[in-house]
Design brief:
single chain, mainly beta, four-stranded antiparallel sheet, seven-stranded mixed sheet, globular, about 55% strand
Length: about 120
């Protein structure tokens, strides 16, 4: 059974930074793409960023230049460094094991973490 555990969320002022972590179980972690999504109150879950097994990355336009996704395969962990945070970044952030990341398109898989809350105050 694959498990994903997010951590690192919290309350931060606008302009601040947070680093989220997604720790995964399973020996095939290094071979799969990983994505981050978020769900703001009243909204559907939205794509944020993804990283391929070869560490190619893609981002939603709303976070480009502010967020950075990275992975440490030795630790089975993917990170989301979030800088210059805005109140509209407030959401529950989820990581996902993807089925593919090809031609700049990330396809989410069926495994999701439980989420971590990020709240940005103005």
């Amino acid at each position: 059974q694959v498990q994903l555990v997010e951590s690192g969320g919290g309350l931060v002022q606008a302009g601040g930074s947070l680093r989220l972590s997604c720790a995964a179980s399973g020996s095939t972690f290094s071979t799969v793409p990983i994505g981050w999504y978020r769900r703001a109150p009243g909204n559907q879950r939205a794509f944020v960023a993804a990283i391929s097994s070869g560490s190619s990355t893609i981002y939603a336009d709303s976070v480009k230049g502010r967020f950075t996704i990275s992975r440490d395969n030795a630790k089975n962990t993917v990170y989301l460094q979030m800088n210059s945070l805005k109140p509209e970044d407030t959401a529950v952030y989820y990581c996902n094991i993807g089925s593919s990341l090809f031609s700049g398109v990330y396809s989410p898989g069926r495994y999701w973490g439980q989420g971590t809350q990020v709240t940005v105050s103005s």
